[in-house]
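Q: Predict the bound structure with zinc ion.
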Amino acid sequence: MPKDALSALIHTCNFIATKGFCPATGGNFSLRNDADSMWVSASGRDKYQLKEEDFLACDLDAKLISGNGKPSAEAFLHGMIYKLSSETSCVLHTHSVPVTVLSMQKKEAQKIAFQGYEMQKTISGFQSHEETLKLFIFDNDQDIPRLASAVKELWHEVKAAYGLIVRGHGLYSWGNTVAEARRHMEGLEFLVECEFYSSRVVRG
Ligand SMILES: [Zn+2]
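A: Predicted complex:
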């Protein structure tokens, strides 16, 4: 187990929990282990108190390799993100109120287009508030492999935001390190919260 990265992830999970982004055991978090496997938080654990033993080794199809517990069904989407992006080493999945509410306001909207926000620059590759950052929204689906296929189909557009929304559900964000994934998560949550307050969704 990559101890330093895992302790950084646990620290980040505690931070996410204190922000209220993963209430009632919701959300899940993962770390790439190697080209074909990942560590993912076990289903149903309290995200305020995660420990090393709460992470399970799984392959990228979310099949358990070792550990004590059950991987969440959503681990399959974490695995798909690692398959689609070999540089990604951390995926954070949060269930915040602004992401949940905003994505439900216009159910036909396929993305939120952020423009004019200084905080867009927290996302790698964005250098100016004048650029447009598109955060794609996918309809929620209890069939996670089907949801992962929809993400795969649109990946060439999705990847620029280092994140995506599942409607009425939450945000997935990722990065090449735990620190970068956390910065992307905080940046995207901040931007969504701004739109949440102004309630402006751009139709896809
Ligand atoms: Zn979820």
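A: Helices lie at 3-18, 75-84, 97-105, 144-153, 155-158, 178-198.
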